[in-house]
Structures are given as structure tokens and as C-alpha cells.
Amino acid sequence: MTARVVLGVSGASGAALALDCARALHAAGAEVELVLSAMAERTLALEIGPAARDELVALAARVHPVIDLGAAIASGSFPVAGMIVAPCSMRSLAAIAHGLDDNLLTRAAGVQLKERRPLILLAREAPLTLAHLHNMTAVTEMGAVVLPPVPAFYLRPVTVAEITAQIAARAVDLLHLGPPIAQAWTPETKGNAT
Ligand SMILES: Cc1cc2nc3c(=O)[nH]c(=O)nc-3n(C[C@H](O)[C@H](O)[C@H](O)COP(=O)(O)O)c2cc1C
């Protein structure tokens, strides 16, 4: 059976991560159930351009309005392999950490937690307040994985696209849909002196 994965996109910086996650999920053969917050629509346009939303939507099997709390992904009875929130804002993180389920993105994330399914949060802010750190602890205690979108410096990336593609690949690998797709570190990795 084809894996369905919910991809939530919130309004943190790093909209390129959403596109790279969608590309990686699509390439892995997963059906993407896409939900974008209102601020995600804005950051996609701001950081990438006016065509970014359409490109993202083209990679999705279904797109769900963030206000549609009656969508299939709002229910634990709808089988999905897990969810990635890329990028995950501190607002969405806080809502997930406190079980607010106040829109379809945070509701779908809460569903993953209650159903004990993988939930990967590419939580992005800098610097972090104690509230952000408490919320990261809370979601981790509930079983989510906080994957801050920081570069894999050890792979010596040259472009931002290399950085975001590697982070997205690591996020998809955490769902364990198939063989790993992220570039793995080996002592022979490019440019390594010894
Ligand atoms: C250009 C831009 C960049 C932003 N970057 C971040 C960020 O990195 N992290 C964050 O938590 N919020 C960031 N925000 C603020 C969020 O968009 C805002 O808190 C919003 O309420 C998040 O709502 P959402 O979680 O429903 O998308 C940014 C906003 C803009 C306009």
C-alpha cells in the first residue's frame, strides 16, 4: 500500500524546507497530504517567490485548507505513516505542545501523537526562549522528534539547496518509509583531510 504522509507547512523561515520535503516524499513514492498555515503561504511567497505554492501543491496528492477541521487527516481513523512539519514555527510548536488542535495543521499533529505515529518537527527560531525550549521538551516527551533545520556542516555543503535537501532527507528518513535517502557521513566524505 502506498504510504500517506501529512506535510504541514507553517510560517517559520525556511519555506524551502517544505518544498524539499515534498520532493523527497514524492520521490519516495509517498502520497503527500498537504496543509499550509496562512503565514506559510506568506513565507513561501516571500522567501521563494509567487510560484512556490503552486510547485508545492503539484507535489501533493491532496491539499487541505488549514481551517478544515473536518478533513480526513483530522481523524486518527485515517491511516497515515506519520507527519512532518517543515518548517515548524514556534506558534505551531506551542499549539502542538499544549494539545490546542486549533487548526488542521496542529490537529493533524496532535492526531499523530495520540495515535503514537511519527511526528517530525523542523522547529525553526533563533535564538530560543525558555518557552520554546519547554515546548520542545513537551513534544519530545509525547513522542515527537524535534529536528532543528541546521546544516550538516560535516558534509561541507556548498549551496543552500544542498543544505535544505539534506535536512529534508533526514526528516523523511525519520519516517522509515524505505531505505535511507540522506547522505550518510563516512570518514571518506568529500574534502575530509584524514
Ligand atoms: C518572513 C517571516 C519569517 C518568520 N520566521 C519565523 C521563524 O523562523 N520562526 C517562528 O517561529 N516564526 C517566524 N515568523 C512568525 C510566524 O509566521 C508567526 O508567529 C505566525 O503566527 C506563525 O503561525 P503558524 O504557526 O500558524 O504558521 C516569521 C514571519 C515572517 C513574516
From TrEMBL:
It catalyses: dimethylallyl phosphate + FMNH2 = prenylated FMNH2 + phosphate. Its EC number is 2.5.1.129. Keywords: Flavoprotein, FMN, Prenyltransferase, Transferase. GO terms for molecular function: flavin prenyltransferase activity. Gene3D superfamilies: Flavin prenyltransferase-like. FMN binds at residues 11-13, 37, 89-92, 124. It is an enzyme of class 2 (transferase). Dimethylallyl phosphate binds at residues 154, 170. Pfam families: Flavoprotein (PF02441). Residues 4-168 form the Flavoprotein domain. HAMAP family: ubiX_pad. Flavin prenyltransferase that catalyzes the synthesis of the prenylated FMN cofactor (prenyl-FMN) for 4-hydroxy-3-polyprenylbenzoic acid decarboxylase UbiD. The prenyltransferase is metal-independent and links a dimethylallyl moiety from dimethylallyl monophosphate (DMAP) to the flavin N5 and C6 atoms of FMN. Belongs to the UbiX/PAD1 family. This is Flavin prenyltransferase UbiX. It comes from Albidovulum sediminis. The lineage of its organism: Bacteria, Pseudomonadati, Pseudomonadota, Alphaproteobacteria, Rhodobacterales. The gene is ubiX.
